[in-house]
Amino acid sequence: MKNLSKWVVLLLLLAPGLTAQKNESLLIGPGDLLHVQVFDTPELTQDARVTDAGDIPLLLGGRVKVANLTPAQAAHAIESTLVRGHFLLRPSVLVTVTQYATQNVTILGEVHTPGAYPIGTPRSILDVLALAGGLSETADRKVLIERHGTSTRVPYFVSNAPGVALDTAVKVYPGDTVIVPRAGIVYVLGDVSKPGGYTMTNNDAKISALELIARAGGALHSAAASHSRLIRKSGSGYVEIPLPLNKIQDGKRADVQLEADDIVYVPFSYMRNFVVNAATLVGQIGGAAIYKY
């Protein structure tokens, strides 16, 4: 009974570390400082730095290769070494990284101050983005994290809902690279209150033709809304698609979901109208103002 209680206590002590290591995705690398804890044998507990060869010297058992392993895998390798050397029968080892050799995280793309920032421990993606001044006005909310030393890529969506953003936040580790791409932009030109480009920065990164017109302040009274057109890029250039906004507004035609780089053109009234082709409109978007909302 006494032995049973002893193992229960041991399991309770191990549980938090085991849970954390189960979700661990960062691999150990040269220069990292490790804390090696051998339960029931405190005299074997040690701190060791990973050598350039990728191993650590144990107090018993010699050197163990730990580079490119997770802390949980490194713990298992140490346990196997202690058993093979007949030092312990059933060792239980916990390995934690107390200091990372690579202390910077690189943040690129659509943030206010991209660059490399020092971090000594894993940080929330929200904290890391804050180091770079946060997302810019034209940032896509689909952020990509590339893990240091691996080809693993972790996507994260920066939700507009604070609770969701906090609940789904992932960890960024020293040496990781965070890339924030540019959001898709759609354009509205012609007889509207605020012609220009509008970023697709809402929570689902989608926008319809009517939503775009609304964000642009609506079509003016002088506009020939029934003759509006959608200019969309295709493999062979640009295609023009009729977009009768008056029928869409009246519910007689379904609204149209826009894609990045689409151009919605609302013609001027017949008195002021002139022939405008797709090439002319595409040429105008280069100088168009870009609005976040």
How does this structure look, described?
The protein is α+β, with helices and mostly antiparallel strands and 293 residues long. It folds into three domains: 2-99, wza like domain (wza like fold, 2-Layer Sandwich); 104-180, Outer membrane lipoprotein wza fold like (Roll); 185-291, Outer membrane lipoprotein wza fold like, CATH 3.10.560. It is built from seven helices and 18 strands. The protein has helices at 2-22, 71-84, 125-131, 162-167, 209-215, 245-249, 278-284, and strands at 33-38, 46-49, 55-57, 63-65, 93-99, 104-109, 115-118, 123-124, 142-146, 153-157, 171-172, 177-180, 185-190, 196-199, 229-234, 237-242, 263-266, 290-291. It has a six-stranded mixed sheet with strand order 16-15-17-13-14-18, with helices on both faces. Strands 7-6-12-9-10 form a five-stranded mixed sheet, covered by helices on one side. A three-stranded antiparallel sheet has the order 2-1-5. The protein is rod-shaped. Residues 6-24 have low confidence and may be disordered.
